[in-house]
Amino acid sequence: MTNIKIERLTFGYDQLGTLLFNDAKLTISADWKLGLVGRNGRGKTTLLNLLSGKIPYQGQIIHQLEMNYFPKQINDPNQLTYYALSENEELEIWKIERELTLLQCDLNVLWRPYSTLSGGEQTKVLLALLFLDDYSFPLIDEPTNHLDMKGRQQVAAYLQKKKQGYILVSHDRTFLNQTVDHILAIEKSQLILYQGNFTTYEEQKAQRDAYEQAQNSKLKKEIIRLQKTAKEKAEWSFSREKDKTNKPKGFIDTEYRRVSPGAIGADAARMMKRSKAIVQRVEGQITEKEKLLKNIETADALKMSYEPTYHRRILYVEELSLSYSGRNLFKGKSFELLLNECLAITGKNGSGKTSLIDALLGEFSGEIEGTIHRADGLKISRVRQNYEGNQGTLEDFAEKEGLDYSQFLNNLRKLGMERHVFANCIQNMSMGQWKKVELAKSLSQPAHLYIWDEPLNYLDVFNQKQILELLQQVKPTMILIEHDAYFVKEVSDKIISL
């Protein structure tokens, strides 16, 4: 059995000013199918790069493995896919065709320019390349980003059949449950290992957090008691010092003895010394107790500005067909959306899900047949898939969108955006931060109907849980496009498959 051993790993980026990993220690078996989870920005991709030896660090990472990273960078995407994958080495075509067949991918993709492949096809091609042999150790970084629900199921089945171990980064709990047997969680610069799939991890983490919260509560009470003791001793010491200076010469004590100022001073000095020693000892105990306090990973509850309308039926669609440039997207769809219902739209990539939303909003530029009835006076808030048009400072963006600026910032903070990012222009933010801006905008908009197109893209499991709990609590009227099967099952009242 080959192991990956991490000893006293310390690493951080100068610009962040904090350590991602601090004296971390861990041993991983290369036979494990290990899921790597953690909040965005905690260092998941960084850890993969550290394991690959791509960036310098303090400590030791010991293994005899050849690390193989997904997604591979394609230098010339205009080449035919086979040649774009081959680069400096000739690939045995039967091997890559074998893997593509297992991934249920059309073999003709090899003879099309790589740039013309869909996101899902590119994902499958790069996974096939990753598993051409079983000599290297795969590091798989978010393979589900461009996969629809069916594609995720196909890739999960593919990984299930692999006998070799790997490390997999994903935010899709269903996908992780199907593909891993261990979870490594990055929590506040710590690496914490759990045996089992994602559901087991959630259960064990909840138990661990509950225990640590109870311990924290006890420690905080003990710290308050010790602080009170230290304060009382310090005040007593101060009062004895004051007595020393305020007593008149040759005063008579309670036993009617004449006491000299020198005796008073010596007595006070002894008492003060002993009192200060007690204070120092108590303060030392406080410091030790504070070190035991655990910084538990939590996420604040979100809020949204949902306004129920007096209309019972929000939408009614009858025999709707959409086509674009002569190509049928779908035909003859009928459905209705009632107040406080969540309607999920599912289907493979390219089936017309976003086009259906455009049609419902009167923004579809293709051919429409059928009827769409929409309640009068609806206020609609939309989360889009593409939001490159969001630009400028957060304050300017909030003003342009008519948002309450403090509410908008509060939603961003709850979604985990660091305060220092608030000073950045939106166009300079990461994809995950772009998504949070788009979501925080929608949460801050008073609306009767929310239309969210793939809201979970680029969000970590903590954010996904926040959104899930919010929708379950508020029950807004909503139309949802999402490829995460668990999320769709938990929030939707109706499903339309295209």
UniProtKB/TrEMBL annotation:
Keyword tags: ATP-binding, Nucleotide-binding
Domain ABC transporter span(s) in chain numbering: 4-213, 315-498
Keyword Secreted: no
InterPro entries given in the database record: AAA+_ATPase, ABC_transporter-like_ATP-bd, ABC_transporter-like_CS, ABCF_ATPase, P-loop_NTPase
A GO term for molecular function: ATP binding
Gene3D superfamilies: P-loop containing nucleotide triphosphate hydrolases (3.40.50.300)
Protein name according to UniProt: ABC-F type ribosomal protection protein
Organism ancestry: Bacteria, Bacillati, Bacillota, Bacilli, Lactobacillales
